[in-house]
Design brief:
By secondary structure, this protein is mostly helical. The protein has six helices and no strands.
């Protein structure tokens, strides 16, 4: 679970970092982006909220399995679907990371 989460967060960080113009812009995006990264945790604090809203956020697919393992004693057979979705999100982010990296290399080469 932690490896999948790490992969996804690193990819998001690389994309955001390569698109930011400077350190101030990066800091602004990171601060605002944390709202979206941590939004699924609200559904653990208030379990009466509709579950489908939490599933909109990609981070749900590693936060929910982590919560289930840590607090509900779930095993891999219980969480494999969420982990599969998290891996799929990471696979789908890979081309964006490559594209952002190429864009940054071109921008640095021209500077």
């Amino acid at each position: 679970i932690v490896a999948v989460a790490t992969l996804m967060v690193i990819q998001v960080g690389l994309i955001v970092g390569s698109l930011a113009r400077d350190g101030n812009a990066l800091l602004s995006v990171v601060k605002a982006g944390n709202i979206f990264l941590m939004a699924p945790t609200l559904f653990f604090i208030w379990p009466d909220l509709p579950d489908w809203v939490a599933r909109i956020f990609p981070t749900y697919y590693f936060l929910h399995p982590l919560y289930q393992v840590a607090f509900a004693g779930a095993g891999l057979p219980d969480i494999w679907r969420e982990l599969a979705v998290a891996l799929l999100v990471s696979v789908l982010l890979a081309p964006l990371v490559l594209l952002a990296g190429r864009r940054m290399a071109i921008r640095l080469a021209g500077a």
